[in-house]
Amino acid sequence: MNSYQSILILKPDLEEAQVAQALEKIGADIVKFKGEIVKAEHWGKKRLAYKVKKNRFGYYLNILHTSDPAGIVDLENEYRLFDQIVKYMTIRLDAGEWEAALGAGGEEGAETDKPSEEAGKEKSSEEAGKEKPAEAAKAETEEKTETEEKTETQQA
User: Fold this and answer.
1) Distance (Å, rounded) from C-alpha 87 to C-alpha 60?
2) pLDDT tens for each residue of the chain, 156 residues long
3) Alpha-carbon dihedral of residues 100, 101, 102, 103, nearest 10 degrees?
4) Correct CATH for 2-108 of 3.40.50.300, 3.30.450.50, 3.40.50.2300, 3.30.70.60
């Protein structure tokens, strides 16, 4: 089983209930082709960069799932036939990308919360590392000004 990310754009004239129904149908299609949804995100209605099938807006869905490689072709055929989908893209994720995609959202279980906490600790230590050189540079500038003042008083 490989890990995949599907990003879909649905028609803009749908109501929220219809978007939820479409997400349920897409989830059923993934399960039908021997897959499993790990995480599904509804990004909301957004403006498209260009018109797609005469639409300027669309509802974005981000679905992280696992599936057999042979099932992806059939899944994409289902996407193509589903009239509420304006555009779709499915990509295979390697292990690092999969972990990063799972860590980006807030719907993970306890196992994926731990790496995100560790990442937060790493960031704080990196920020602390950046602050130390700044403090050192500030102290160095103060020392230079004190040294210059001493030399000026000795010359006078």
Assistant:
1) 10
2) 899 999 999 999 999 999 999 999 999 999 999 999 999 999 999 999 999 999 999 999 999 999 999 999 999 999 999 999 999 999 999 999 999 998 875 443 333 333 333 444 444 444 444 445 555 555 666 666 666 666 555 665
3) 50
4) 3.30.70.60
